[in-house]
Amino acid sequence: MKLDEQFVITISREVGSGGRTIGRALAEKLGVRFCDKNLINSLVEKFDLSAKNIEMIKGQKKNWLADILQRITPVPHAGALGSTGQEFAPAVTNDELFRAESEILKEIAAQESCVIAGRSGFFILKDCPNKLDILIRSSLSNRISRIVEKQNVSREEAERIVERVDAQRENFVRRYTDTSRYDARNYDLVLNVDGLTGDEAVDIILKYIEDSSK
Q: What φ, ψ does residue 180 adopt, rounded to 5°?
């Protein structure tokens, strides 16, 4: 992947691995937009961006999403949008939501360099020419410990969260991509962050990009 051309970096991650934090820090380091569930859900909710409505808006205005994003949040702090952590309950079906998310991600990637966390970006944006797909992993014990600290829950509850979210994400990916999110063949870089700080993980990714572009 070349940083001197428009690029996309997708970050898939295990819950409790800190992958979202790493993705946001990477985006800030590169000075590009950070896109995650909070941003996408806020766009869908605030502007009623169903797949059908997106097609209507696109037909009326070429740079529709760029205008919306600029009003909501400037680069590179898009990750701050909807940072309360509240879950969004869409009034549309999962299939409709996935189509809307896919349209939004493709539009963002077509307009500007960005870092995208989750949302099956590795699959949705598979045709992007200058793209890097990353999977952030961590040991189960470290993931549980991080959730205990971040969410202030018991270790038993953290274990249940990991089990539930892992299953939900795997089911989601298999349903819409016909592959497993654990399949290393889907990624250019699989990074185990045990023993690493967020900054160290970002530095490793940047070094990988530098070396792979030579």
A: -100, 140
